[in-house]
Specification:
With about 200 residues, this protein is of the alpha+beta class. It is about 40% helix and about 25% strand. The chain starts with 10 loop residues before the first strand and ends in an 8-residue tail after the last helix.
Length: about 200
């Protein structure tokens, strides 16, 4: 029962993605065991510069070691943090950082580095996003220019139609006086009445 409650020991501990100033430590958790964190002890092979890294509430199976010295031998050990405490330390893993002059060759040899692939993908995404943004802006500018042109044409047509309507209304509101209009007929009727009423022309 005590062995069942014991936190498992890390297995398959390895170091990859070696560079002059960094390295990545990875491990595996035995199937069926529960691990809530890890701790890594790091030291140079000559015994100097001891470092201890501890993380909890994580399910990560790797950790990046930063600020390493170039062309230097290191020793690391990994422990799991479980519900019942820390596990036994893993076997010691030795590795040696690269020289700064080997960085370029290491980049070519680490084609499978997910960090480098992520950077390349992010660069491609940024370039593609910029192209899409430029195309969208150009299309919007073209649409706005076309809309303004159509609006000017419609506005000109409306103004010309309004002018024609005003002209037609003004022509309809102006009275036309013909020679045979109502005014002349009234005048001729008055003249006839006045002639009939003149003295000497009254007939019985």
């Amino acid at each position: 029962q005590v062995a069942a409650n014991r936190t498992p020991t890390p297995v398959n501990v390895s170091v990859m993605h070696l560079r002059a100033d960094s390295a990545t430590v990875s491990w595996e958790v035995p199937e069926g065991d529960i691990v809530i964190g890890f701790s890594i002890s790091q030291q140079r092979q000559d015994g100097h510069m001891q470092r201890f890294i501890r993380e909890v509430n994580t399910t990560s199976h790797s950790c990046v070691l930063w600020d390493l010295e170039e062309d230097t031998d290191y020793i690391i050990q990994v422990q799991f943090i479980g519900l019942y405490g820390e596990s036994q330390a893993s076997q010691k893993v030795h590795f040696r950082t690269l020289k700064k002059t080997d960085r370029f060759s290491s980049n070519s040899s680490n084609q499978d580095d997910p960090t480098m692939q992520g950077l390349d993908k992010s660069r491609h995404l940024q370039t593609g996003e910029m192209i899409i943004i430029v195309v969208v802006l150009v299309m919007w500018a073209a649409v706005i220019a076309l809309f303004c042109r159509q609006y000017d044409i419609i506005k000109d047509n409306d103004s010309s139609n309004n002018k024609e309507k005003v002209k037609q209304l003004s022509e309809r509101s102006t009275p036309e006086h013909h020679s045979g209009g109502l005014l002349r007929s009234k005048v001729s009727l008055n003249e006839k009445c006045s002639r009939n009423l003149l003295p000497g022309r009254i007939s019985f």
